[in-house]
Write a structure and sequence with these properties.
It comes from Pseudomonas viridiflava. It is built from ten helices and eleven strands. The chain has 300 residues and is α/β, with parallel strands linked by helices. Helix 1 crosses helix 3.
Amino acid sequence: MLDLRKLRYFLTVAEELHFGRAALRLHLAQPPLTRQISALEAELGFRLFDRTSRTVTLTPQGRHFLPYARAVLDQASLTEVIASKLAAGEAGQLVLGYASSIALSDLFSQTIQAFAQRYPEVQLTLVESASSSLYSKVVDGRVDVGLSRLQPEREQTDVQVLSLMEEPLVAALACDNPLASQEDVTLPQLATYPLILFPADYGSGLNESIRHLYRQHDLPVHPGPSGRQITSIIALVAAGQGVALVPECTRTLAKKGVVYRPLNEPEACVHLLMLTRTQGRSLLVEAFMGVVGEVLGRGV
């Protein structure tokens, strides 16, 4: 394997075409420099320079070898920079898993944008996932950070759960629904209509929050059709297939034929939770958490 130091010596002599000046640049005496170049030539099996008492010129082999030597040294320098940034948590890959409704929140978009600007050499991989599967994905390392709507049923030992914010639920109604003419709606009013949810097998944290809310008020859920995306749910509302309860950030989906009305239930809200491994968090995860705190205006 070629010695990078000898390649640097060769490159400097090739640029100066003078052993004395090259030695000065390298802060090296000329005889050791000459010996190092001779040793490199012996390793390569060909002469790099034609030397006389007055001139130093590259041999044809030396001229051909020069760009390859420069490329190796450039790559070595880049490798050192990348290694330094990896050690400092400024490069690498971060996998962010998130529930679909969270992608509509300002916190999500502002955090992604701020993190990308702060750490341009980090490859941020976004993975949409049901809230119920995010816990296992964080534990086994498939996801570094999870953004979930689902409160854990029991205390988590492997996953740290941080509540970032609460978001009110609003009713999504077809424009021709009689409730659309009201300023706000109540749960008993909504309970008379088919309720559009995520599929039962999807493991949606939003589903769990809504069903819990109905149980608290001793109201039946009349299931309507289901959609795997929040956009699909809103499209089904527009088609007159039922009503939906969605996080307030869903108002940004300005779908023709759909209106949003506040819910006259102060406790009707969903959490936005951040999941990370309890042990062994990487510097990149810590950096992401720091950016989340900056966007929120508080530490997390």
